[in-house]
Amino acid sequence: MSLPNNLDPVYFHKTFRLQPELWKHAVMELCTQHHLPHHDFHAFTDGTNLIASVADLYIVKIFPPFLRHQWDSEYRVLKHLNNKLHIPVPELLAYGETENKWVYVILSKLYGVTMESVWSEINVEEKKRLLSQMGQIMKQVHSLPVDDLHNLPPQWNTFFDEQIQKCKERHVRLNAPSWLTNEIENYVKQNIHLIPTQFTSVILTGEYTPFNILVQKSQDHWNISAMIDFGDAMIGFNEYDLLGPSVFSCEGNIELVAALFEGYGIPYSNVNSEFKTRLMLLMLVHRYSDLKTQILIPDWETRVGCLGDLEGLVWPG
User: Fold this and answer.
1) Residue 117 lies in a domain
2) Residues 238 and 118 both lie in one domain
3) For residue 285, what are the domain limits?
4) Is 3 a domain residue?
5) Contact 100, 68 (CB under 8 A)
6) Interatomic CA distance for residues 254 and 271, integer angstroms
7) For a designed S-S bond to 256, which of 58, 79, 250, 293 qualifies (C-beta 3.0 to 4.6 A apart)?
8) Domain boundary residue among 83, 108, 133?
9) Cα–Cα–Cα angle for 130, 133, 138, rounded to 5 degrees
10) Do 145 and 170 belong to one domain?
C-alpha cells in the first residue's frame, strides 16, 4: 500500500491530507483490491481523514494509524445502523487494515447537498422543518439498542472525567473570552451534580451538524435525505447529541431551538433553567468544544458576560 509509515500527525493534517496527489494511488489500490471501478476520482480535503469519491458511486475513507479509533467507530456504527433508520446512512461495502496499520472503509455514496450549503439561503420555516426532522432522526437513533456497541471507545464515565479535568485549559488555549475562562472552574464544580451518573446509554453519533446532514429539495421544500460520517460516534448520555445542532444551526432563535427539541420529543416548555445549565456544562466539556467558532450568534462574546446569560442566549425563552 502506497502510504507512508510513521507519518507525523501535524504533517498529516496540514500537508499530506490536503494534497490528494500524495494519496490518490492508495485509493486506486483499494478499489482494485475490492474489484471496484476507480475512475472519476474526486478528493474531499475538508474532513479529518483521507476521503475521496470514485466512479461517482463510492466513498473511500482512509484513516492514519493515530486515528484508528475513528475507523473503529465508523465501521462498527455503520454496521449497527444498517437498514434501521428512516433515512439512509452509507452502506458499508468494505473495511480493513493495510500492512502498515492504516485502516479504511469503502462506502456507498449518498446524494444530496450538505445542510450547511443551503442554510443561509432558506427562510425560518424551512429551517424549522429541517431541525424538526433532525430531532426525529436523533430520537430514532437514540431509541435503538446499543447491543454490541456497548464497549465502543471512549467509555463515557472515564471520558467525561477526563474532559472535566482539562476543560479550563482547553478554553484558555482556544482563546475563549476572559469572563468565560475566569468563571468556568466554579461553574463546572457547582453544576456537575446535574449530569446523571445513572442513565440509559444511547448511540451518540456527534454528527447532527450541518456539515454531515445531506438535504434534497422536493416540491419546493428541503428535506433531510441522508446522514454521513460516524467517526466520532460513542456511547453515552443522550443530551450530549443536542449540542451540535443547538450551536451550529439554531442561531439563538427560539423557534429553531423549539423545532429541534420538539422534533426530538421534548416540549420546549420543559427546557427549564436546570436543563439549560446541564446543556451548557456538556457543551463546555465536549471533546471538540470551541465556542468561538461554534456558537453562530453574532457578537455573543460581548452580548453576555457570564455563563448563565450565555445559556439564555443559546437556548432562549
Assistant:
1) yes
2) yes
3) 113-314
4) no
5) no
6) 11
7) 250
8) 108
9) 125
10) yes
Domain final residue pick, 108, 136, 152 = 108
Q: In the structure grid, which three cell numbers stand for residue 39, read together?
A: 475512475
**Sign of the four-CA dihedral 89, 93, 97, 103:** negative
Residue 149 is placed in which grid cell? 456497541
pLDDT at residue 1, rounded to an integer: 64
pLDDT at 86: 94
pLDDT tens, residue by residue, 275-289: 999 999 999 999 999
User: Treating both helix axes as pointing N-terminal to C-terminal, what angle do 273-285 and 178-191 enclose, rounded to 10 degrees?
Assistant: 110
- The pLDDT value given to residue 95: 98
What's the pLDDT score for residue 47?
87
How many domains would you assign to the chain?
2
**Dist. CA 252–CA 260, nearest whole Å:** 12
Match 468561538 to its residue by C-alpha cell: 292
The Cα–Cα gap between 21 and 150 comes to: 39
CATH of the domain at 97: 3.30.200.20
This prediction has a pTM of: 0.94
User: In this structure, what DSSP letter does residue 148 have?
Assistant: G
The model's pLDDT over 180-216, given as tens digits with 9 standing for 90+, comes to 999 999 999 999 999 999 999 999 997 799 999 999 9
Give the E-state strand segments of 110-196 in sequence order: 113-114
Q: Which H or E run includes 51?
A: strand 50-54
pLDDT at position 150: 95
